[in-house]
Each structure stands twice: as structure tokens, then as C-alpha cells.
Design goal:
It is a single chain. The protein is built from 11 helices and 6 strands. It has 279 residues and is α/β, with parallel strands linked by helices. Strands 3-2-1-4-5-6 form a 6-stranded parallel beta sheet. α5 packs across α6, α6 packs across α7 and α6 packs parallel to α8. It is elongated. It starts with a helix and ends in a 5-residue tail after the last helix.
Length: 279
């Protein structure tokens, strides 16, 4: 791959040749047109792999979680504080353990906090079952879910590698693979924190997915919703795109880098064309 300096020197020589031929105006037009094409093409082909987070990036995980908690609260006549405390516990465990939605330990801590005596296993299993039903419906029936499948197929058809990198458990990985197979989603790699032994923002988990894809950091872009754990990818030499559409009360302008509200064919094509911040 030619460096941008080499591209500029070649175009400069071309410009001099045209000027000497007494066609300065057409020479300027040609030089800048060619320079633009060369530079954008140079940047374009640097990205070889698209890597995605899961929760609130490619699917509305928080929305589903709250819906499931509210359902359990009404079904079992639990106090309104049940949802609040569960989400607080879930946020803590998200930073300290390899978690899954409906994790029994989180449910147990929540019920203990509220001094409630319920069948923890039953509540957890019911919440998890509902979550996977919602996910399947999301990728098969809902517009954004079907659109994400189109995005992955578009990228793979254009010879890009695709992967998933997520803070998650072995159990969740197995269930995601099973679900994605059913809905027609295929990735070249899928790395979860439980198999690596560390969570984001650790560099090790990012290095693991690069090794599996057999690429360098400069050839990868990471799409995530968390500006602390996900955006760290830029510090490791990756490109990063902030996906913010599934989160509530978010000001998109708080982040000066590349961003997109949702991952769609349109926003992905804009990213590939411009490699610039997306509104």
C-alpha cells in the first residue's frame, strides 16, 4: 500500500507535467480529483474487519431487560423497587463478573436486598427465557434487527471480516451462537470475556479477537455503546464508532469521534465512504 506522501508526490509530478503543457486549469481539476480518490481509497482499504459489541449496540438489551423485570414484578406482585435494585446490582456485576441477563447471583442479591423470599432459580430462568424469545423476534421481525443481518451480509459479500467482542459468559456465547444460526447471522470470530479471563477495557480481550481474525489493530473498527470500555479501542490502534441509539437521555455531541445512531446499511455505507463522524 502506498503511503499518502507517495500518493501526493506522484500527483504533484502529474500536475507539473500538465502545467507545462499549458493546461493549468484542467490540471488542477485532475490533480485534486485523483488525489481525493487515492486518499479515500487508501483509507478505505485499511479497514479489513468490523467488530461489534452486543448489548445496546446491535440489540436493545437494556430495553428487553427492563421489560422482563417489569413483567416479573407484575406477575409475582413484587415491589416497584425490585426493578430499580436489580438494575443497580446488574450494573455492579457488569463491571465485576462475566454476567448474563437473568444471572441468578444478581437475582439473589436483589431479593436479599429487598428481604424477599422467592424461588431464585425460577425467576432467573423465566427472565432468561423471555430475553431469548425477544431477541429471536427482534432479529426476525423488527426492522433494526433485520437490518443488522443485512449489514453483516453486505460486509461479508464485500470481503470484510466480521466479529463480535463482548463482556459475557460461556453460557451466553453458546445461546447467541445458536440464535444467530437460526436467524442467519454469521461471524468470523466471537470472543467473550469469560474465555479470555478479563473484561473490557483490558487490552488482552481486544488482542484476542485480532489474533483470531489474523489482522492488525489498524485494520479493525470496533462498534460499541460504552465510551469507557469500548472507546478504549482507539488507544489500542483500532478505529472506533460509538453507537448510541438504544440508550436513553444521551447527547450525541458528548463524543467528538465517529458515531452513528443505529447500525444500518445507510450508516455503514457512509462510514465506508467518508470515514468521518456520522450524525
Amino acid at each position: 500500500m502506498h503511503s499518502l506522501t507517495q500518493i501526493w508526490l506522484r500527483q504533484k509530478l502529474l500536475l507539473i507535467a500538465y502545467i507545462k503543457s499549458n493546461q493549468p486549469r484542467s490540471a488542477l481539476i485532475l490533480i485534486f480529483r485523483n488525489l481525493y480518490k487515492k486518499i479515500t481509497h487508501n483509507l478505505y482499504i485499511m479497514i479489513k474487519a468490523f467488530v461489534f459489541d452486543i448489548g445496546d449496540c446491535i440489540e436493545p438489551s437494556t430495553k428487553f431487560e427492563i421489560e422482563n423485570l417489569e413483567y416479573l414484578r407484575r406477575k409475582y406482585n413484587l415491589p416497584k423497587s425490585f426493578v430499580k435494585f436489580y438494575l443497580q446490582m446488574d450494573k455492579y456485576h457488569e463491571l465485576h463478573m462475566f454476567h448474563a441477563q437473568g444471572e441468578p447471583k444478581i437475582m439473589q442479591k436483589t431479593l436479599n436486598k429487598l428481604k424477599l423470599n422467592y424461588n431464585i432459580k425460577k425467576l432467573s430462568e423465566e427472565m432468561q427465557a423471555s430475553y431469548w424469545i425477544k431477541l429471536k423476534r427482534y432479529f426476525t421481525k423488527e426492522k433494526l434487527g433485520r437490518e443488522f443481518i443485512r449489514v453483516i451480509n453486505f460486509l461479508r459479500n464485500n470481503n470484510y471480516k466480521t466479529a463480535v467482542l463482548s463482556d459475557n459468559s460461556f453460557q451466553a456465547k453458546r445461546r447467541y451462537l445458536n440464535l444467530w444460526k437460526k436467524v442467519g447471522l454469521k461471524f468470523d470470530a466471537f470472543v467473550v470475556s469469560a474465555e479470555v479471563g478479563v473484561e473490557k477495557p483490558s487490552k488482552k480481550i481486544f488482542q484476542t479477537v485480532l489474533k483470531r481474525l489474523k489482522i492488525k489493530p489498524k485494520n479493525a473498527v470496533y462498534f460499541g455503546n460504552n465510551l469507557k470500555r469500548d472507546a478504549i479501542a482507539k488507544n489500542y490502534g483500532w478505529d472506533f464508532v460509538w453507537v448510541y441509539g438504544f440508550m436513553k437521555n444521551i447527547n450525541p455531541n458528548q463524543f467528538n469521534g465517529k458515531r452513528m445512531k443505529f447500525i444500518t446499511i445507510k450508516t455503514m455505507k457512509i462510514y465506508l465512504k467518508n470515514l468521518a463522524p456520522l450524525g
